[in-house]
Design brief:
single chain, 452 residues, alpha/beta, eight-stranded mixed beta sheet
Length: 452
């Protein structure tokens, strides 16, 4: 029998005995299918493995659905660069703004739908404001202002024909140039209520005076002070309604404690900036009520925990937090230990800038952990006294606070104007340096911290 016939005979015998090839030689693994069992990692396609790896790299708070939204809105290239930037301790930082023109906080709000319309945004205490520069936001702050009748500044207002003759054109132009302008509203708007018994000075303005805020390009006000409650709860409620009717957001007071402690948010320059306000005044006799569960009032710092928690919340929901605080001793140019202690707590809880008012005079500036504390901006337009005052401008970028600049002004003869003389400007800067610790102010008013 030749060799070929031998192999043919063997094959015939295998068929006759019912043997198959699988009894001897296993099929290649590519032919083995197990449709009712999940594929092992080694059996997953390269694309699936890549997708799973990207999911595993997502930082906390960033979901697959959110990233799918980013890909659909900004394309695969942006999506790939962002996912490649993720690290265990980093969510991409400023790359979001660089690639999309919006920070991660803003993108999350857009994804959630709360920015679909201005009305929807405002229902979440978010205001939309276009910035002059898409990569930065200029914030401007002023101290105490009052439109309350019965005082010298309002007599001048009525005699001279309105706010344009009291806060002069140079100042108004500088205020209008800011992207977001904030001021302390040191009075209530109402025709109701009675002055609080035993209080020496009480301030109430006719609700029509709210038009002045629009004339001054004011974008939001703090109500956390010791005069917004001067005519009781009804007048405070009228104040809230008046400001809302004029489209002016407010912080630091509310119909209840939840509203009083809630931050106000602005989206501008592709960033989300929050403002949280509270008052440390009064220290002995407390005429100004703190808001309760069902009662109007302000947010106080007698126990600072509520304020610190509000700052912490604002930090988690935004890119930059401004803590605006009413504190200090009237007529005193030097800040005190309790102000300093509270400021440092605020910074430890997330504030990127602390702005103070109440003393009716300027106080100094210091830095703590790289964050500036402006202790008091004094009166902006409040009475007939001749006193130095000013605007404080802060430039915010996706990296944080980029510049802080003092713009000196003078309140004199019931008017407020810019200081324009070079000599007087330098004296104003030197005066602020004398009140401050650990800063210098250059010839343009830009504030620099001294090396620690």
């Amino acid at each position: 029998m030749n060799r070929n016939r031998f192999f043919i005979l063997i094959a015939i015998l295998m068929l006759l005995t019912g043997c198959t090839r699988s009894s001897f030689l296993p099929l290649p693994s590519t032919y083995v299918t197990t449709p009712d069992r999940a594929a092992s990692p080694s059996q997953t396609s390269p694309a699936s493995q890549e997708s799973k790896a990207e999911t595993n790299r997502l930082p906390e708070g960033i979901s697959e659905d959110f990233m799918a939204f980013i890909k659909s809105q900004y394309g695969t290239s942006v999506y790939d660069r962002l996912t490649a930037s993720f690290q265990p301790d980093s969510d991409g930082g400023g790359l979001w703004h660089e690639l999309t023109g919006s920070s991660l906080s803003v993108l999350k709000d857009r994804y959630s739908g709360i920015l679909n319309s201005p009305d929807t945004a405002r229902s979440h205490r978010i205001w939309l404001k276009e910035s002059s520069d898409p990569n930065q936001v200029v914030l401007s702050f002023a101290g105490d202002i009052s439109f309350a009748d019965g005082y010298a500044n309002m007599s001048a207002y009525h005699t001279r024909g309105g706010i344009d003759s009291c806060i002069l054109p140079n100042v108004r132009a500088r205020m209008a140039a800011a992207d977001i302008m904030m001021i302390n509203n040191e009075f209530c708007y109402s025709r109701r209520g009675a002055p609080l018994t035993g209080k020496s000075f009480t301030f109430r303005a006719d609700p029509s005076m709210v038009q002045n805020l629009n004339s001054l390009s004011v974008d939001l006000v703090s109500l956390a002070n010791n005069h917004v409650y001067d005519y009781g709860p009804e007048a405070l409620l009228d104040t809230l309604d008046t400001l809302s009717g004029a489209g002016i957001p407010y912080a630091g007071a509310g119909r209840n404690i939840e509203e009083a402690k809630e931050p106000v948010y602005f989206i501008s320059g592709g960033m989300k900036i929050s403002f949280v306000c509270a008052t440390q005044i009064e220290r002995s006799i407390r005429f100004t009520k703190e808001a309760g569960t069902d009662s109007p009032g302000v947010l106080r710092t007698d126990n600072p925990d509520l304020y610190l928690a509000a700052v912490e919340k604002a930090k988690s929901d935004s890119d930059f937090v401004v803590a605006f605080i009413h504190w200090g001793t009237e007529g005193t140019n030097y800040f005190e230990e309790d102000q300093q202690h509270l400021a440092r707590q605020l910074i430890n809880h997330g504030a990127g800038l602390v702005i103070g008012c109440h003393p009716h005079v300027l106080q100094g500036i210091e830095y703590y952990q790289g964050v500036p504390i402006v202790y008091s901006l004094g009166n902006f337009w409040f009475n007939s006294r001749t006193i130095p005052t000013g605007l404080m401008e802060a430039v915010i970028t996706p990296s944080g606070l980029n510049k802080l600049q003092f713009i000196p002004c003078i309140q004199e003869n019931c008017s407020t104007d810019l200081v324009v003389s070079p000599d007087k400007k330098q004296k104003a800067f030197q005066f602020m340096e004398q009140l401050s610790s650990s800063i210098t102010i250059d010839t343009e008013g830009i504030i620099h911290p001294l090396p620690e």
